[in-house]
């Protein structure tokens, strides 16, 4: 395949991958939530 078919598709893949990574970095992270506990445990 001397026409660069594989190279072109690899470049397209790398561009999509980079866009996905950029989008992923800007999403809010779902970390552990802190549970609000009452000050008085006897309640």
Largest sheet: none
Helix content: 40-55%
Average pLDDT number: 81
- How widely separated are the two ends? 75 Å
Number of helices: 1
Radius of gyration: 24 Å
Number of strands: 0
Care to describe what's here?
The protein is mostly helical. The model has no long low-confidence stretch (mean pLDDT 81). The protein has one helix at 5-25. It is built from 1 helix and no strands. The chain starts with a helix and ends in an 18-residue tail after the last helix.
Keywords:
43 residues; mainly alpha
Layout: helices, strands, pairs:
Elements: H1 5-25
Task: Give a quick summary of the entry.
The chain is mostly helical and 43 residues long. 49% of the residues lie in helices and 0% in strands.
């Amino acid at each position: 395949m001397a026409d660069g078919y594989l190279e072109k598709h690899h470049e397209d893949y790398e561009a999509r991958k980079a866009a996905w990574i950029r989008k992923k970095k800007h999403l809010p992270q779902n970390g552990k939530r802190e549970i609000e506990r009452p000050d008085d445990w006897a309640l």
